[in-house]
Amino acid sequence: MTPKKFTTFDEFTRTVREIGFLPGGFPWSDGGVLSVSTLASPDVMWHSGISDLDPWEWRIRVLTDCEDIAYGKVFSGKSGYITREWYPRFIAARRRAESLDEAWEAGKISRPAKRIYDVLRDVPALSVFDLRVSAGLSKEKRSVFERAIVELEMSLYITYCGEAQKISRTGEPYGWPGAVLCTSESFFAGVEDEAAELDPARAARDIAERVREVLPDVSDRDIRTLIRAAK
Fold first, then answer.
1. What would the pLDDT profile of 122-147 be if each residue is shown by its tens digit?
2. Within 13 Å, how many C-alpha atoms sit on residue 20's CB side?
């Protein structure tokens, strides 16, 4: 498999579907051995605001235009994309389809992450602004909240599902948009059950084999970095 360089949004989504997953990454940052920045053509227009040519715009556009691609901080604590087809494999490989309650009982989940997840599983979706308050973390340092969000995203318990602005007392939106989050099961119904049917070792091998199809010379270390749940 040799993915073509992409320039437009449609070409990008075709590549994501062909591979099954794709870390984000920017031209000026370390996107790893496989990322949007390594596969984007020189003709893309970063931060131009042009919807069809700007990879920064694509991260939200996939959530509105594509029902089969998820976006979030899912690779080494950085952004990336995973398709509906490959999502169960990542769940199986990263946490053996362990539920959050099971992970909590085993001491694998932080208390802030548990509080965030407990809120999200009872609502369709929530902005980060409202989520921080609802989870009782508004008095905590922002870094505590942000680490807990990434912890849940990396283990594929929650995912992005849009953006929203803060709302003033008069009902007017203001400020920079923030993420809207939901549980992964809410975003992709049935993925938890499908992941539970998979062998975790086989799921990890499937991911590794797909990466090698794209990058035959990739190192085992780079593959482990892509698969693992922790940063």
1. 999 999 999 999 999 988 888 999 99
2. 17
Instruction: Write down the domain spans for the chain.
Output: 9-227
Assess whether pLDDT exceeds 60 at residue 29: no
Q: Please report which confidence band the pLDDT of residue 204 belongs to, taking 50, 70 and 90 as the band edges.
A: very high
**% pLDDT > 90, the chain:** 80
Question: Secondary structure of the chain in the HEC alphabet?
Answer: CCCCCECCHHHHHHHHHHHCEEECCCCCCCCCCCCHHHHECCCCCCCCCCCCCCHHHHHHHHHHHCCCEEEEEEECCEEEEEECCCHHHHHHHHHCCCCHHHHHHCCCCCHHHHHHHHHHCCCCCEEHHHHHHHCCCCCCCHHHHHHHHHHHHHCCCEEEEEEEEEECCCCCEEEEEEEEEEEHHHHCCCHHHHHHCCCHHHHHHHHHHHHHHHCCCCCHHHHHHHHCCCC
How long, in residues, is the chain? 231
Question: Tokens 């091998």 correspond to what residue?
Answer: 205
- Taking only the tens place, the pLDDT of each residue in 80-98 is 999 999 999 999 999 999 9
